[in-house]
Amino acid sequence: MTQANLTQKQEEQLAQALELTQQFEQKLQELDQFSDAFVQKYKRESIFNSFKERINLGQQNQIPIEAKLILLGEVIYAAEKQDITPNQARKLEELLGLSKYIQNYSKIREQAILGELV
To answer: Which of 2, 9, 20, 31 has its C-alpha lying 20 to 30 A from 38's C-alpha?
Structure first.
């Protein structure tokens, strides 16, 4: 083997190593994104379940409507912070059962969100 062939072979190996390193970095980034998404989903599920347990316990202890309204405020705040999804927030709102106590709840809710009836 001549020196020129050895250098060419080393360059090819170096190019392969560089390509593998880039692929490895890309896979690490993908893994980080997946990991972040998994942690966020787990965090959301945990917070949602915590709210759900509190609501169920409150229902069993017949908490007053004022306490339910405060809890609804906490749910909305958690949704705004993206600690729970809007869908989870709606499920928790339904569990609170405020429509049983407030006439025209959907219109009142609309006013609370928009500041007026549309």
So the answer is: 20
* Residue among 63, 62, 52, 65 nearest 94 (CA): 52
Instruction: For the chain, state the CA radius of gyration.
Output: 27
How many domains, in total, are found in the chain?
Answer: 1
Close Cβ partners of 79 (under 8 Å, ≥ 6 residues apart): 85, 86, 88, 89
Q: Are 71 and 31 in contact (CB under 8 A)?
A: no
Question: Strands, DSSP E only, in the chain?
Answer: none
Question: Residue 48 sits in which domain range?
Answer: 3-114
What are 80's two structure tokens?
A: 């705004």
Model confidence pLDDT, tens digit, residues 1-43: 455 566 888 888 888 888 888 888 888 788 778 777 777 888 8
- The mean of the pLDDT values for the chain is 86
Amino acid at 98: L
